Amino acid sequence: MARFSKDASDIELMGSLRAGNQKALSILYDRYGGLVYTVALRLLKQPTEAEDLTQEIFFNFWKQDKYDPNRAVLSTYLCLVTRSRALDRLAKRATQQRSLQKLQGLPNRSITPLENATLSEQQETVQSALSQLKDQQRQVLEMNFYQGISHADIARQLNMPLGTVKTRARQGLVELRKRLGNTIE
């Protein structure tokens, strides 16, 4: 691996990073981490969320080779990616808040023991059917329905095309319908 100093150019550091030298990522993080955090904090207004996003940006930067130095300087690229991911998070937050508001608007009634037992049985039935799916389909469905992660975010996290995620979700749902039949009302 090539030796370099903290004064190395971004392009030199990128070459070293692509060659597997993780020290280059550390130098790039020291160089641009504050900038990424500042952009994230300005948009998200929450320090912990800005910290999480900063880590996510650099992790994805390290894992995915999407930066093209011919299109933009690294600081511009990182700012644009950070802005985009922060706006995604804000949109997701707004959707969750609207859903919560809708739920809070529903009449507050307690669930009867019979309804609770029925719900538990249905959850067990769904879990059993999910466990019979192919791992790829189950993973996408669990991330989407249980963790509330969008298809686009799943694609980014799993480093796969969005179309593949959507196909696996659709195939998984079709297979679940077959397995569940009329067992869930």
List keywords for this structure.
mainly alpha; 185 residues; Arc Repressor Mutant, subunit A; Rna Polymerase Sigma Factor, Chain: A; elongated; 2 domains
* CATH architectural arrangement of the largest domain: Orthogonal Bundle
Number of helices: 8
Give me the Rg, rounded.
22 Å
Oligomer: single chain
CATH topology of the largest domain: Rna Polymerase Sigma Factor, Chain: A
* Integer average pLDDT: 85
Helix proportion = over 70%
Structure report:
The longest helix is centred in the middle third of the chain and has 32 residues, at 74-105. The mean pLDDT is 85. The chain has two domains: 1-105, RNA polymerase sigma factor, region 2, helix turn helix motif (Rna Polymerase Sigma Factor, Chain: A, Orthogonal Bundle), CATH 1.10.1740.10; 112-185, Arc Repressor Mutant, subunit A (Orthogonal Bundle). The chain starts with 9 loop residues before the first helix and ends in a 5-residue tail after the last helix. By secondary structure, it is mainly alpha-helical. It is elongated, with a radius of gyration of 22 Å. It contains eight helices and no strands. The protein has helices at residues 10-18, 22-44, 47-63, 74-105, 113-131, 135-146, 151-158, 162-180.
